[in-house]
Amino acid sequence: MNDTDFMELYWQDPHRALEYAREHTPVREVTFETGPTWLVTRYADVRAGLADPRLAKDYRAALSEEERALAPPGLPAPMSHMLTSLDPPDHTRLRRLVTQAFTVRRVAELRPRVEAIAKSLLAELPTGEPVDLVARYAIPLPMEVICELIGVPELDREDFAHWSTVLIDECPEPELIRASAQLADYLSGLVALRRKDPDDALLSGLIEASEGGEHLSDIEIVAMAMLLLMAGHETSAVFITNSVRALLADPAARERLKPDTAANLIEELLRWISPALNASLRFATEDLEINGVRIPRGASVTLSTGAADRDPRRFPDASTLDPDRDTAGHVAFGHGIHRCLGAALVRLEAEVAVPALFDRFPNLRAAAPDEELTFRRSVHVHAPRAFPVILQP
């Protein structure tokens, strides 16, 4: 399959394209709208790459001193200060400060609040007529949770949903820059407000840490908040939407949405429809080899977690959704020092949101076939922009 055909298939059906790459060209150069990159698709290569220190997150680490002096600035601040763009020691320092907010125990304590939000949203949904599950449920639930966790006022949350969608999707560069600047400006103002009037949310906690000797700059605080807001609701919204779509197509799996089996089903769904198709970019700091293919120093590398988790070399009959499968070792949330901070939160939100929806509306059905849905154009996620359903008790 030539590059043009591969990319056309990728935008239409990324799992089919990734399957083709995994079986025929497991390490191949492709061109996304962000530029050329080496796409890695087999489980063993992806998992090794996720923990390989030779694949840096900051592209400047792959440059010589002379090249660095002449290189363009790269991502604008504060995006260049996000955890997804940093390597140790800065990554280690910043991650340590926020990890305490996302421990399994701390996230478990959020369950009653997540359940209350789900109940409230479901109570507002009309029955017997098409309703967009994305706009009315899949986005609002995790958005409200992460905004409460960070400390974003309720009136501003609709703007956040728009900004983060632009930053995740394949949008024209001017639109990306504008959305990034708007989100950064808002958060800078919120940081200034919380310095004067702190609350008990995470943003105030980061400000307190910066004033207590942790040496956090305002740009670093804004970058941390930006990343958490984007990743904290986008990942869950996509996963909730695609989980509902998958279960509507598989009544037998849907029967496993019971208290004692729902967690196992959610874990298999994480493997099968990975919330993020690909990990964020890495850059080779030296010439290296992946599956027999030479990757030159400075090259961009995309590790496809979505392809890896459907690799039959690691998971037998991997293309089948199997609620009884042993999913240990899946890389839906990455692996190594950059493993997703919010993994426990995504699990919790899905474990609450998906069963609650089907419990309240057991006769839920799609209002349109898949071929009539419009899917987001994104390297990282594959999900419909809207998912109309008919809700019936």
UniProtKB/TrEMBL annotation:
InterPro entries: Cyt_P450, Cyt_P450_B, Cyt_P450_CS, Cyt_P450_sf. Pathway: Antibiotic biosynthesis; vancomycin biosynthesis. The keyword Metal-binding applies. Signal peptide: none annotated. The keyword Nucleotide-binding does not apply. It holds the Pfam family p450. Keywords: Heme, Iron, Metal-binding, Monooxygenase, Oxidoreductase. GO terms for molecular function: heme binding; iron ion binding; monooxygenase activity; oxidoreductase activity, acting on paired donors, with incorporation or reduction of molecular oxygen. It comes from the Bacteria. Involved in the coupling of aromatic side chains of the heptapeptide of vancomycin. Belongs to the cytochrome P450 family. This is Cytochrome P450. It comes from Amycolatopsis panacis.
